[in-house]
Amino acid sequence: MIKTIGRNKQWIDIHPNRKAGRIRKVVHGNRETAQRIVNSLYEQYYRGVFGWPKESTTTVAMLIDLVLEDRGLKGSVGEHDVANAALWNKLIGTKPAESIKGSYLKSLAKEWMTVPQKVGGRKKLMLLEAGTVNKRIGFLMRGYQLGLEAEPKLVTAKPVWHQLKENPPKSGFVNWPDFERLRTHQPEWVQVPSTIGHWSGMRLDEVLGLERIQVTFDHNKQDVTIDLRPGETKNGEPRFITLSGDPYEVLARWEAQTLQSHPNCKYFCHRDGEKTDSIRYQWERSCVASGLGSWKNPTAKTQSLKGYEGLTFHDLRRTGVRNLRRAGVDQKTIMLIIGHKTTSMFDRYNIIDEEDVRDASRKLRGYIQSKYQNGNSGGQLVDSASPNTPPNP
Fold first, then answer.
1. 152: cis peptide before it, omega within 30°?
2. Residues 6+ apart with CB under 8 A from 387
3. pTM, entire model
4. Which phi-psi region, left, alpha or beta, contains residue 378 (left: φ > 0; alpha: ψ -120 to 50)?
5. What is the pLDDT of residues 313-368, one digit of tens each?
6. Domain at 176-326: CATH architecture
């Protein structure tokens, strides 16, 4: 029996027989919704599993643990995973997993993107971008998916969530002449991490965390090798990078100075023998001085209030990927050097610009001329000028 008892409220009363028991419930929705529920219950009765679904006792924290366990088995637990786990455990960890609805996630996403938040260990409050919100909520949704795949299932459904549209990947680069000019405006202790970042594509936290024992020099070959240990990289995997030329000269000179002035210093990037924790202020000033950045409010009293915009240290990482690709290094090797585990992440950094298009045109011209001149094109290439003149693409 179905009886309407209010706006979008229906009373259902089902009793197939004495053995099956009786179900009396208020359901929210129109009469059609109630009828579908009744039909589903009768289907259960005919299968011999009649009964109102029991509420799950699974908490959000249990799903979060599943994600960490899953990524731990794959050897891919990163610092962002730990941060996301702590975030969700603090927000809703003790709540029943099936009490979390899509509307809650939507409101949370709106709050993160419109109300300044404290992110990680940063003191400055900031608005979250769509990509960061997608990663946070994606971490939680992965927990629900693992809960559905568990045997027996830990949840019966997951919240409805549609990923937000993300901004196009950033495309900042710096060419070599501009980078050289930038370094002339930096103190030497900032030149060192900048040089490593430009030539290796390493992340800033990886660079500043380098210990001297991880940087080895071969003065005969005039190269320097940087050895990143397991657990010290964002993806948790070790990698090593060998550099020569300009980076060898800059880093070898710095190491020689360190041996004389601060021989007991543990870290390669240091300031007067103390570990370099940040180069933000010096970076911003040098970028503005070299024309690679600017102040939004140049008359403000403090540098933080001036509001910097322009080249970032992470742009050196994009520059590293582009330079390696242009140098003809294969994609797999670039991914190993840079530390990208997926081609999708590599593609976000592998941005094609106008110079790449010109280079493609030059290569095409050279290919066609070579095929024509060698006479093995498989078909004669001609243009309106002369049958003996290579075409001009």
1. yes
2. 380
3. 0.53
4. left
5. 989 888 887 777 777 777 767 676 666 555 655 555 544 455 544 555 555 556 55
6. Orthogonal Bundle (1.10)
